[in-house]
């Protein structure tokens, strides 16, 4: 007996979708290299993939998607590549209003903003404001994001409250940490996808992926299609999540 890979998503249980999907969009550079193109061409192709995947996730009814666009470690790359990525992200934010307008996507940026250009910071505020009343999927763009930085930031807020006598350190709860993350108020990540065959977190959402199902895909990010998203969700639905129980 052999199985035919399903082309549609009719076998996906829409009542058991991951509420929050995290995506480590990796492999743009290798995609370009394979074609003899500059790395920038890979990033451009990756941005196209992103649009399609967010649209599909929204159409399916996924509520939150967090995409890793630029890590706190990515500043180590050559300046020309960093500049290209920043320009691409800027364009993405500017055009998001237009390209995702019919899609009802609410856009937010997560990560440390103070290292970003004034221009970028302004555009983030603008895009967030313009899309704040949308009722579809919430898209967190992780931009100058690092999981450790996020936790340090949360610790700072909590220490300040403790020093001011507003918080008893012995009473610290998970919720106090949750409430001080960039994702405050959002559900934790259910499904984490990383493309390009690498199997590591690279400082992505360290707290929020504690019980996420991880799916590592060999395809490079620019080759990742809506059908691949369906496949990841099928894999997710086939897993037994126990959260420490039996
Ligand atoms: C992911 O692709 C995009 C970013 C990190 C911004 P890479 O640029 O890491 O591509 P590879 O891993 O070098 O192929
Ligand atoms: C992680 O990919 C960051 C993003 C996808 C934005 P990297 O390519 O930077 O991660 P490493 O260096 O392979 O761990
Ligand atoms: Mg990479």
What features would you describe in this structure?
By secondary structure, the protein is an alpha/beta fold. It is 40% helix and 14% strand. Strands 3-4-2-1-5-6 form a 6-stranded parallel β-sheet, sandwiched between helices. Helix 4 links the parallel strand 3 and strand 4. Helix 2 runs parallel beside helix 3 and helix 3 packs parallel to helix 4. The model has no long low-confidence stretch (mean pLDDT 95). It binds 3-methylbut-3-enyl trihydrogen diphosphate (IPE) (2 copies) and magnesium ion. One 3-methylbut-3-enyl trihydrogen diphosphate binds next to strand 2. The site of one 3-methylbut-3-enyl trihydrogen diphosphate (IPE) has 11 residues, from strand 2.
Instruction: Classify the beta-strand content into a percent band.
Output: 5-15%
Largest sheet, strands/sense/barrel: 6 strands, parallel
Query: From the alpha-carbon coordinates, what is the Rg to the nearest angstrom?
Result: 19 Å
Strand order of the largest sheet: 3-4-2-1-5-6
Mean of pLDDT:
95
Bound molecule types: 3-methylbut-3-enyl trihydrogen diphosphate, magnesium ion
Shape, per Cα inertia axes: globular
Number of strands: 6
Low-confidence stretches: none
The total of helices stands at 7
* Percentage of residues assigned to helices: 25-40%
Distance between the termini: 33 Å
Secondary structure class reads: alpha/beta
The helix/strand series, from N terminus to C terminus, equals: EHHEHEHEHHEEH
């Amino acid at each position: 007996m052999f199985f035919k890979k399903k082309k549609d998503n009719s076998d996906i249980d829409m009542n058991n979708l991951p509420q929050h999907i995290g995506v480590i969009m990796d492999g743009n550079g290798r995609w370009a290299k394979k074609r003899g193109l500059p790395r920038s061409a890979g990033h451009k192709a990756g941005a196209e993939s992103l649009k399609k995947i967010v649209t599909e996730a929204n159409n399916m009814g996924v509520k939150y998607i967090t995409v890793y666009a630029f890590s706190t470690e990515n500043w180590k790359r050559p300046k020309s590549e960093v500049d290209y990525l920043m320009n691409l992200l800027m364009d993405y934010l500017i055009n998001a209003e237009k390209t995702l307008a019919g899609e009802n996507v609410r856009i937010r940026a997560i990560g440390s903003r103070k290292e970003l250009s004034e221009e970028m910071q302004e555009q983030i505020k603008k895009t967030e404001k313009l899309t704040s009343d949308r009722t579809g999927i919430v898209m967190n763009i992780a931009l100058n994001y690092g999981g450790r930085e996020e936790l340090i930031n949360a610790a700072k807020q909590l220490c300040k409250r403790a020093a001011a006598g507003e918080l008893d350190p012995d009473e610290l709860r998970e919720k106090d940490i949750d409430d001080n993350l960039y994702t405050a108020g959002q559900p934790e990540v259910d499904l984490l996808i990383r493309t390009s065959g690498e199997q590591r977190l690279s400082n992505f959402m360290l707290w929020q992926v504690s019980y996420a199902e991880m799916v590592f895909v060999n395809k490079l990010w620019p080759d990742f299609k809506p059908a691949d998203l369906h496949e990841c969700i099928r894999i997710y639905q086939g897993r037994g999540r126990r959260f420490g129980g039996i």
